Amino acid sequence: MTEKMQKIKRIVSVLKGKTALARYKSNPFVVLISTILSQRTKDENTIRAANQLFAEYKTPSELAGAPLKKVQRLIKPSGFYITKARRIKEVSKIIAEKYSGRVPSEIDELLKLPGVGRKTANCVLVYGFGKDAIPVDVHVHRISNRLGLVATKTPEQTEEALRKTIPQKFWLDINELFVKFGRNVCKPVKPKCEECFLTEDCKFKSAQKFP
Fold first, then answer.
1. Three-state SS sequence of the chain
2. Which tens digit of pLDDT belongs to each residue from 95-136?
3. Domain parsing of the chain, residue ranges
4. What is 3-21+135-201's CATH topology?
């Protein structure tokens, strides 16, 4: 076993021991729309907006036919609600008409949807379908670089590097493990190094230089 592989197994094992994993599989349509809502906003805002939206509209066809102004009002807590409302209705219409109301379960088809990038598509695969994928958001990108698993500049590069580095059996857990670690301990600004249980793997700690 290579040194890099030993490091990956150690990190995953430590994080699993410190993290309460939910790893539930949700409605793929709810995951898709919620991930669109989550762009450029905080989790609490996403949850509030999604709860309000899905209390009124349950299916792609219902949301596709919903009044634009009402959708805007329901998702306003998520921010950028004018743009997001148009995008959500557009995506819902395509799913209702082209995919008979079923969210596609293949990444190539998901990426054809307007405004759906690799992070959103991979979130749908993991949290909507329980498929092996690695959604890379700002937390996963940051943590992967700080721990020296990758040396990348963009989330897209990080995903590609992690897919080559991390065994597929760990893919389903990586997003949730790294996101929770990034929110609670290895924060973007003023990380809680004194509370960290992965300091031996942190390549930036000694220099206090954080990406």
1. CCHHHHHHHHHHHHHHHHCCCCCCCCCHHHHHHHHHHCCCCCHHHHHHHHHHHHHHCCCHHHHHCCCHHHHHHHHHHHCCHHHHHHHHHHHHHHHHHHCCCCCCCCHHHHCCCCCCCHHHHHHHHHHHHCCCCCCCCHHHHHHHHHCCCCCCCCHHHHHHHHHHHCCHHHHHHHHHHHHHHHHHCCCCCCCCHHHCCCHHHCCCCCCCCCC
2. 999 999 999 999 999 999 999 999 999 999 999 999 999 999
3. 3-21+135-201, 28-129
4. Endonuclease Iii, domain 2 (1.10.1670)
